[in-house]
Design goal:
Chain lengths: 337, 322
């Protein structure tokens, strides 16, 4: 184990997987940075969030490809290369930009295997950043995992810790299906113990973050630590929670969630998206449909409002679920009569 | 015409197979026994075959919603294709793809595509894979005049140009983007003149003449194989049927189709050329026609007898692992 940032853990996974399999390559905007500049040597960017930094020194510009600002071209190139046997890891700087390449994901990569009668594989990873918290406003702050989770054929990973960042990215690269990999932009600098060497976290296997008796909290990404904060405050009042981080929203570890709700009888789902047709509503419907008789209180969904993500600090923090809102929601369901 | 007798026979047979495949579908669709949306390639055969006769199984192609011709030309199994179009369990794609998604990875056919402009980004990626593999394979994207106005197609050509990828962008200009004339929807003088702006070597050629297609492509594909980067071609061509089967084609000139069938039928042009030059005789042609007809009959016979998919198959092959 070595203490690493979330960013370093992701870079670690990329180095290991690129060494392990020469079919793995990275492509995206400024993933190297400076390619072709008459004023600089390649490599001074390494991805705008620094995740692909240094890769080109070991693997060369052939396997670390700076691309034009052409999201459809990047995603389509990755899908085509994957169909032809490579394992591309494409970077789309902000998931908001998936709007520009959704056809390549939704109609192409996601459906090849099915449409072609099980003969094709498309082992691509599309890494992207998501989430509010940096005052980046409406087009650079969305959390679009529900959008792609709803598309059969795509897998969706969203690590909340440095160890999971490494383990899930390694698994994503080795997986034979297309994976959309969501990195929360406020988490890059968090630190944690990360296993050295090969580290694989299986898809569809939730992480039990903490265990308790009174309420089940389900959250991903940045919201996991918000739930932990809320749970610590609740513990002072004698309320204990199961916190479940599904880690992948597709495939989803339904059993982990349902078993916990059967035990606690209460469910609060936390997600920093708008509420309609969301990950939160999906989990709520799952529990309501499968373990209704175990429920002692209405299911609560703590999400953003039905609005774009705003710019100003005061507005953005109102948009994002807070530990206080989570704590109040848990207290409410525990006290429900 | 520097093709060997076997190459001429192969080219004719491929074109004729596509034609008869499509003619069968045209008749059969009216009876209601073929489900879904079908877009026929009849009329454009010289392009698909002229291109693909220069390719090997190690090369890749991407195709369009009007893709049957590209599939056959690239070597997809005709019987498997016919079964697929009838929606049968043992079709090339197990009845899950249908007309717009015929594919066969084993022969480098990366899929017909229901999205106009869907293919070029994928061909660009396949060309990148080919470049990384360094074995001299190339990727060809087929697209119509409609696809040339899609943004991802522009992005693909730019990417291929800056990365010097072995990709060839083939535009089959059959005059109509669905039901709208190409002169209206394409602002530039031609598709070719626009593509040149991407810094890509581009040729405009006669797509009614197999020999011209074959020769143009031979040179372009050789250049791409040698690492000279991408190129593009705009072929003038025509489709003998509508955008989709059932399209009344009121947007065409009154005698346009009659004129095309009389003067621009690529198969007639091929036949006239080879027989006049004494390269193949009428008997040779008749023999090939018989072979093609029996293959199509066999494919229809098998397709009709093939089993239907089972309801439980609806959720198989969504993922490799679950």
């Amino acid at each position: 184990m070595t203490e690493k940032t979330y960013r370093e853990a992701l870079t670690d996974a990329l180095f290991l997987e690129m060494r392990r399999d020469e079919n793995v390559f990275v492509l995206g905007e400024d993933v190297v940075g400076g390619t072709g500049s008459p004023h600089a040597e390649p490599g001074f960017v390494g991805g705008v969030f620094g995740v692909t930094g240094g890769l080109h020194e070991e693997f060369g510009l052939e396997r670390c490809i700076d691309m034009p600002i052409s999201e459809a071209g990047i995603a389509g190139t990755a899908a085509g290369a994957a169909l032809a046997g490579k394992r591309p890891v494409a970077e789309i700087m902000f998931c908001d930009f998936m709007g520009l390449c959704l056809d390549q994901l939704m109609n192409q990569a996601a459906k090849f295997r099915y449409m072609f009668g099980g003969k094709a594989t498309c082992p691509m990873v599309l890494r992207t950043t998501y989430g509010a918290g940096m005052n980046a406003a409406s087009q650079h702050s969305q959390s679009l995992h529900p959008l792609v989770t709803a598309i059969p054929g795509l897998k969706v990973a969203m690590p909340s810790t440095p160890a999971d960042a490494k383990g899930l990215l390694s698994t994503a690269i080795r997986d034979d299906d297309p994976v959309i990999f969501f990195e929360h932009k406020t988490l890059y600098t968090i630190t944690g113990d990360v296993p050295d060497g090969e580290h694989l976290v299986p898809f569809g296997k939730a992480r039990m973050v903490s265990e308790g008796d009174d309420c089940t909290l389900v959250a991903t990404g940045r919201m996991v630590s918000f739930c932990e904060n809320a749970a610590q405050a609740l513990a002072d009042d004698g309320i204990t929670c199961d916190i479940i981080d599904p880690r992948t929203t597709s495939p989803l570890d339904e059993d982990a969630i349902l078993d916990s709700v059967e035990k606690t009888g209460r469910l609060v789902v936390v997600d920093e998206t708008p509420p309609r047709c969301s990950f939160a509503s999906d989990i709520a419907a799952l529990a309501a449909g499968e373990v209704f008789s175990s429920l002692k209180a209405p299911i609560k969904q703590i999400t953003g409002p039905h609005s774009p993500v705003p710019f100003a600090k005061e507005l953005e923090s109102e948009f994002v679920p807070s530990p206080t809102k989570i704590r109040d929601a848990v207290a409410e369901v525990v006290n429900f009569k | 015409m520097q093709l060997a007798r076997e190459e001429l026979e192969q080219a004719y047979k491929q074109m004729k197979t596509i034609r008869e495949f499509e003619e069968h579908l045209h008749r059969e669709i009216m009876t209601g026994s073929i489900p879904g949306f079908t877009h026929l390639y009849a009329g454009q055969e010289a392009v698909a075959v002229g291109v693909c006769e220069n390719l090997t199984e190690a090369d890749y192609i991407t195709s369009t919603h009007r893709g049957h011709g590209h599939c056959i030309a690239k070597g997809c199994d005709v019987i498997g294709m016919m079964k697929e179009l009838y929606g049968k369990a043992d079709g090339l794609c197990k009845g899950k793809g249908g007309s717009m998604h015929v594919a066969d990875m084993d022969v480098g056919m990366l899929g017909a595509n229901g999205i106009v402009g869907g293919g070029p980004p994928l061909a660009t990626g396949a060309a990148l894979a080919a470049k990384l593999d360094g074995k001299g394979s190339v990727a060809v994207s087929f697209g119509g005049d409609g696809s040339c106005n899609q943004g991802p197609v522009f992005e693909s050509m730019n990417i291929a140009a800056i990365l010097k990828l072995p990709s060839i962008y083939v535009y089959e200009n059959n005059r109509y983007s669905e039901h709208t004339h190409c002169d209206y929807v394409i602002a530039s003088e031609s598709i070719a003149s626009r593509v040149e702006g991407f810094g890509i070597h581009t040729v405009k050629a006669n797509g009614f003449d197999f020999f011209e297609v074959h020769e143009v492509m031979k040179e372009l594909i050789a250049k791409a194989r040698e690492g000279n980067g991408p190129c593009a071609v705009e072929f003038e061509t025509t489709r003998f049927y509508g955008h989709f089967e059932g399209d009344p084609q009121d947007y065409r000139a009154p005698d346009e189709l009659k004129d095309d069938r009389e003067n621009n039928d690529c198969i007639t042009i091929f036949k006239d050329k080879v027989t006049e030059a004494g390269l193949l005789s009428d008997d040779d042609i008749n023999k090939l026609d018989e072979e093609v007809n029996s293959l199509i009959e066999e494919s229809v016979d098998q397709a009709k007898k093939s089993p239907l998919p089972s309801p439980e198959d609806v959720t198989t092959d969504v993922y490799v692992s679950y």
